[in-house]
Amino acid sequence: MAGLVITGDKKLQRQFRALGGGGQRRIMRPAIRNAAKPIVRMARSLVPRDERALEKSIGTQIDTYKQTGSVIVRIGARSGFFLFDGLRKIDPIRYAHLVELGTINMSPRPFLRPAMDSNRNTVKAIINKTVGQGIRKELARTK
Question: Which residues, in sequence order, are bridge partners of residue 65?
């Protein structure tokens, strides 16, 4: 699985602890949501033109884990974006991985991995900026 892992240094972890419960989530969720936008935009533009339903279905899902304080974003095909082709319903979530990775009979037509790879530095910059702003806002809020 391709991924981008960003971990905080000791100073950042201390700042999050100083904010108390919920502060880290209030900062990280918007930061992750904003950072995912350029990847989603580029992935949609890289989807093969004959895959309209797949293009529309690309989006994000953000999960927060309270015990670890981790915020995870999943970018890919979402359910509920059906295309009707004659009598059958086509669900992109069932074949997005086949388009990305290919099959024995079809060459790969990647769209997610190139979008993530080309936006790696942009994502880090957006997260740094948004987290910095969020920490300042939360600290001002707690004073």
Answer: 70
pTM of the model: 0.83
In a domain, 86, yes or no: yes
Answer yes or no: are the C-beta atoms of 142 and 19 closer than 8 Å: yes
> Which residue range forms the structural domain that includes residue 99?
10-132
In a domain, 3, yes or no: no
In this structure, is residue 99 part of a structural domain? yes
Q: Return the pLDDT at 57.
A: 92
Q: How far apart are CA 113 and CA 141, in angstroms?
A: 39
For the chain of 143 residues, list the mean pLDDT of each consecutive stretch of 10.
Answer: 58 70 81 94 93 90 82 89 79 92 95 94 92 84 71
Tell me if 62 is assigned to some domain. yes
Cβ partners under 8 Å of residue 64, min gap 6? 25, 28, 29, 70, 71, 72
CA 36 distance to own-chain centroid? 4
